[in-house]
Design a protein that fits this description.
Length: 480
C-alpha cells in the first residue's frame, strides 16, 4: 500500500487529502499538523473549515484510509510521498517585508523531513511558493540526507474555496513539475498515477519544476487581474451611465476573453490573490524586472482603490457622515460558501466605516463573532501571525455588534452594505427590512446581487457597483 502524508491540515491539505483518500481506497493518507486544535476538529463532527461536500467525504474515509494526526514525525517517516501544504504568508518583517513569501513554515517542515526520514521519499510542494523554492528545499534535504534520496515535485493546488470539492473532483488541470532526470521523471510518474485514479490523463500536465512553481503564481495573477480590470471599468461605468454587468457580458462573449470571473465587486479577497501577486512582484524586483513588477502591482492598487471607493461612496451618500449611524453589514466572508475571512474586503470596509465613527451591526452565516472581532483588531498581513494581535480599543468594541440574523442586523439601521454574495441574501424580505430601517434607507450592494429596481420601488436609495447611479446619489459629491 502506498502511504501518503500531508504536512498541514488547512484549507488545502484537508480537502485535497480527503479527496485522494476517497478516490484511491488502496492508498493510506495521513494528514498531520502541529495545531492540536485543528487536528482535534478534523477528528470531530465539527470540521475546522466549512466547505460544501467536505463533511460527507471525510466521514466516509476517516478511520479507514484517511487519518488526521499530530504525530507529525511518525507519519512523515512512514510515508512514500510527502505533500507539504503549510502556510506561506507574506513576510511581515525583515528583508522583503510586505511582499516576499515567508517560507519559515516550509523550511521547518523540510528540516523535520530530513531529520526523521529512513527511506527514499518524494516530497511534493503543495503550498504556493516562489519560483526556485524547490532548489532551496532540495539543498536542505540533501545536506541533511544521511544517504536518503529525495525527489522534489511541484504540484500546486488550483482549488477555490467554496467549490473545493467540486474543483478537486473535476479539476481543469493537475500540474506536476519535476526534475528532467530519470529520477525526476519517475517521481512525476508515481504522482501522476495517484491522480490518474480519477483525473483524465490529458488534464495532467507535466512540466519542469520552475514552470510548475511559476504557473501557480501566474494563474492567480491572471485571475486577479481580470477582477481588477472589471472593477476599474466599474468606476468608469458609474461616471458615464454605462452598466458594468452589461459591459462585462458584452466583453465576455468574445470567446478569446471568456465570460467567467468578470463580476465587478467591492474588491477581491481571500488568502491567495494578494499574497501571491506580492510574491510575484518581489520575485520580479529581485530579478531586476521593475516594469514587470510595476505592472502586477497595479492589480493590487486597483483592488485597494475599489475598497476605498466603496467606503467613500457609503459615507458621501449618507450626507458625508456616518458618525453615530447604524450600518448593517451583511456578509463578512471573502466569498460565499466559506467561513474564511482572510483578506476579506469586509475588513477594509468595516475599518473604513468604523474610522468614520459608524456603529456596525454585522451578520454572516458562517463567520463567528470571535473571528470578526479578531479580524477587526488586526493589522494588515497579521492574520497569519497571531502574535501581533492587538486588543480592540474599548471605543471600537462599543461601535461593533455581531448578530445572527439579517433582520436583526438591519433593524433601525440607516444603511445596509452587502459585502458577500451569500444566496440567502438574494431572497431576503426587503420590504420588511425597509419598514424597520431609518429613512432615508440606503442599500450599498458590493456584489451586485440585488434587484436594484425592485428595491427602489420599495423606497430604498440604492448603490450597486458599476451601475447607473440613483438620482439621489448623482447629486452627491463625486467619489474619488
Ligand atoms: P492554512 O493556514 O489553512 O493551513 C496550513 C496549516 O499548516 C496550518 O494548519 C498550520 O498549523 C500547518 N503547519 C504550519 N507549519 C507546520 C509544520 N511545520 N508542521 C505541521 N503543520 C504545519 O493554509 P492553506 O489555506 O491550506 O494554504 C496552504 C498553502 O496552499 C499556501 O501556500 C497557500 O498559498 C496554498 N493555496 C491555498 C489555497 C486556498 O484556497 N486556501 C488554494 C491554493 C493554494
Ligand atoms: C483563488 C483561485 O481562484 C484558485 O484557483 C486558487 O487556487 C486560490 O485562489 P479563492 O481565493 O478561494 O481561489 O476564490 P476565488 O473564487 O478565486 O475568489 C477570490 C476573490 O475574488 C473573492 O473575494 C471573490 O469574491 C472575488 N471575485 C471572484 C470577484 O470579485 N469577481 C469575480 O468575478 C470572481
Amino acid at each position: 500500500m502506498v502511504k501518503i502524508c500531508c504536512i498541514g491540515a488547512g484549507y488545502v491539505g484537508g480537502p485535497t487529502m480527503a479527496v485522494i483518500a476517497f478516490k484511491c481506497p488502496a492508498i493510506e493518507v495521513a494528514v498531520v499538523d502541529i495545531s492540536v486544535a485543528r487536528i482535534a476538529a478534523w477528528n470531530s463532527d465539527q470540521l475546522p473549515i466549512y466547505e460544501p461536500g467536505l463533511e460527507d467525504i471525510v466521514t466516509q474515509c476517516r478511520g479507514k484510509n484517511l487519518f488526521f494526526s499530530t504525530e507529525v514525525e511518525k507519519h512523515v517517516s512512514e510515508a512514500d510521498i510527502i505533500f507539504v501544504s503549510v502556510n506561506t504568508p507574506t513576510k511581515t518583517r525583515g528583508l522583503g517585508a510586505g511582499k516576499a513569501a515567508d517560507l519559515t513554515y516550509w523550511e521547518s517542515a523540510a528540516r523535520m523531513i530530513a531529520d526523521v526520514s529512513k527511506n527514499d521519499k518524494i516530497v511534493v510542494e503543495k503550498s504556493t511558493v516562489p519560483v526556485k523554492t524547490a532548489e532551496a528545499i532540495e539543498k536542505i534535504l540533501t545536506h541533511n540526507s544521511n544517504g536518503i534520496k529525495y525527489q522534489i515535485l511541484s504540484n500546486p493546488e488550483f482549488l477555490a474555496e467554496g467549490t473545493a470539492i467540486q474543483d478537486l473532483f473535476n479539476p481543469d488541470r493537475v500540474l506536476i513539475g519535476g526534475r528532467e532526470t530519470p529520477g525526476g521523471q519517475k517521481a512525476i510518474q508515481t504522482l501522476k498515477e495517484v491522480y490518474a485514479h480519477w483525473v483524465p490523463e490529458d488534464r495532467i500536465i507535466c512540466t519542469n519544476l520552475w514552470s510548475a512553481e511559476l504557473s501557480k503564481l501566474a494563474a492567480n495573477a491572471f485571475l486577479a487581474q481580470r477582477i481588477s480590470s472589471v472593477n476599474a471599468m466599474s468606476a468608469l461605468c458609474e461616471a458615464t451611465g454605462a452598466d458594468v454587468t452589461q459591459v462585462s457580458h458584452a466583453v465576455g462573449k468574445d470567446m478569446r476573453v471568456g465570460s467567467k470571473f468578470l463580476n465587478a465587486s467591492v474588491g477581491f479577497g481571500g488568502s491567495c490573490f494578494q499574497k501571491d501577486i506580492l510574491s510575484l512582484v518581489y520575485i520580479c524586483e529581485c530579478n531586476g524586472l521593475k516594469e514587470v513588477a510595476n505592472y502586477w502591482k497595479q492589480v493590487i492598487q486597483v483592488n485597494d482603490y475599489q475598497k476605498n471607493r466603496f467606503v467613500n461612496r457609503v459615507v458621501s451618500s449618507m450626507f458625508n457622515t456616518v458618525s453615530g449611524k447604524k450600518i448593517a453589514i451583511l456578509g463578512f466572508a471573502f466569498k460565499k460558501d466559506t467561513g474564511d475571512t482572510r483578506e476579506t474586503p469586509a475588513i477594509d470596509v468595516c475599518k473604513g466605516l468604523l474610522g468614520d465613527n459608524a456603529n456596525l451591526s454585522i451578520y454572516d452565516p458562517q463567520v463567528t463573532e470571535d473571528q470578526i472581532r479578531k479580524d477587526l483588531s488586526m493589522r494588515k498581513f497579521d492574520w497569519d501571525n497571531p502574535i501581533h494581535l492587538q486588543p480592540m480599543s474599548p471605543t471600537v468594541m462599543k461601535q461593533l455588534n455581531v448578530v445572527w440574523d439579517a433582520y436583526a442586523a438591519t433593524k433601525d439601521a440607516h444603511g445596509l452594505c452587502l459585502l458577500t454574495e451569500w444566496d440567502e441574501f438574494k431572497t431576503l424580505d426587503f420590504k420588511k427590512i425597509y419598514d424597520n430601517m431609518q429613512k432615508p434607507a440606503f442599500v450599498f450592494d458590493g456584489r451586485n446581487i440585488i434587484d436594484e429596481q425592485k428595491l427602489r420601488e420599495i423606497g430604498f436609495i440604492v448603490y450597486s457597483i458599476g451601475k447607473p447611479l440613483d438620482g439621489w446619489l448623482k447629486d452627491m459629491p463625486a467619489v474619488a
